[in-house]
Fold this protein.
Amino acid sequence: MLQDLRLAEDESPVYRRLADAIAERIAAGTLAVGDRLPPQREIARALGINVTTVTRALSTLQEQGLLEARPGRGTTVAARDAGEKPGFVSAPSDQSGIIDLSVNRPATSAYLDAVAALLPRLSKDRHYAALQDYHPPEGPLWARAAVADWFKSVAGDGDPGRVVLAAGAQHGLDCVLGAVTRQGEVILADEVTYQGINALCRVHGLDLRGVAMDRGGMRPDAFEAACAQLRPRAVFLVPTLHNPTTITLSAERRHELAAVARRHNVLIIEDDVYRPLADDPPPSFASLEPELTIHLGALSKCLAPGLRLGFVIAPRPIAGQVAAALRINCWSISPLTALIGARLIEDGVARIIEVQKQELRQRQAILSDILGRFDIQSHPTSTHAWLRLPEPWRGAGFARTCLERGVAVLPGDAFAVGREPVQHGVRINVGAARSQDDLRSALTTMAELLAAGHLQLPGFV
């Protein structure tokens, strides 16, 4: 739980460094809600510090709502109001005085405008009468056909028989893992990656392992070594506008990773939800290795997460297994969601996406103007950016200090796979701000903190 706990070597007080180290483990999920911390004397002895320092660190975390102390139970990780895993944020904050840059959300109202125009026409749609009926677990054929045609150059060759509709990409990923893995099998992923895979692997009893990355994404040599040593069932990749780093794997890197997967017969789970936002992305893994790849897509990032429409495109035998898992899970998705999604796809999804991309370009330009002098990794049409923090900042400490100044971001530990130390960074969701002025204000605050360095570290005296 707190084994191998290491404190940062900076000028901040020891109690603050201990609080930051524990907070980072909570954010990463290493310490889960309800976990009980060792006695204070045991922590002090293991770290070679005094008990008073430990008491002050734990008190600080209690004040922040990360820990709670109850008679007879000791000190445990506190539950959040939303009942979620700490560090996993799925809805923007409406708290007054907070500019929330921690959640991916649409930067414009283009989706709402399109739905407002669509809804009055739905009752006259030829599929409207079918909305009151049950539907097959894979979803209505007409909706799968719309998705298959939209993505025919990316995955599935336009075959609706390879498409399974889901209530978002996370739901699709859950059904994929339930269909193609067995408890105890190893799944590989980038050493920092989309948070949802961590939680799902725990639920399914899978052993998720991180693979080393460079600035081009997952390293083929590290992937090869992990395959030889761990014999994984699958590798999970976010190849386009990676979450959280925004890396888009080059065509060369995709071919190299695909070749490794082919040699070791490892399934590729390709989470490509950001692909529609990218300008001319390289070929998908599904087009390079169609019989070895399970492609995940959704309308969440390019249109709106509130629609809750995702899809799995896979070889027909695997698609059938995914549909069977989905039937057990929820029978089928809402046909109303499927109808709205299908009509938006057929009536001009490209126009909505282009509006979103134009706004994202403007917001990314604001980010570049304010934070460009720091180590920021991004893309002109990405919904987010990855900020590598300068000394002496650490991920959790910087995120907490930002929050104290009215800006919410997610620390790098929230995206870490396993317990290995990760680069100190934060994800900034440029689309999440309610306006460009809010974004500019939040980024200016962050720039001031980055420039001030240790003078702004919480608790520094």
Notes: Residues 10 and 364 are 32 Å apart (CA to CA). The first strand starts at residue 67 and ends at 70.
